Amino acid sequence: MSGRTAGTPALAQPLRPPSPGRAALYLGLFLLGAVLGVAGALVQPGWFPGGLLLALAGEAGLCLGAARAVRRRAAAVAPAAGWALVVVLLTAGRPEGDFLFAAGSGSYLFLLGGIAVAVMCATLAPVRRPDDDPGRPGK
């Protein structure tokens, strides 16, 4: 058995904090998502339809690739959270009047499309399943 007490269902077990290695992995994915958010913000207005698609495809590749490599949904959520945090911070104007995003359709498609891509990748990510759970039908 994998850390469960006999007779206790998997859902009744208390949550454990992640191991230091897994926490470092999620932090690295968060930072990689933040870097990808900055890169996407710079690429998407440059080559309008192609840059936008390239930025969103990069985010989808990072989120879904991380989730499939680690086999956890949290691995898809970590880079998506880093991406979202950086993009939201970049949309805020400064007191001097400087901004990175123009008020155009491409910027809104980047923001809303990126959020939609993150949700889709977290939904499509593989879920950890108990190995030997006799209560699961169809096994």
From TrEMBL:
Pfam family, one: DUF6113
Keyword list, A-Z: Membrane, Transmembrane, Transmembrane helix
Keyword Disulfide bond in annotation: no
Superkingdom field: Bacteria
Keyword Transmembrane helix assigned: yes
Spans through the membrane: 23-42, 48-67, 74-93, 99-127
The protein's name in its UniProt record: DUF6113 family protein
Organism: Streptomyces ziwulingensis
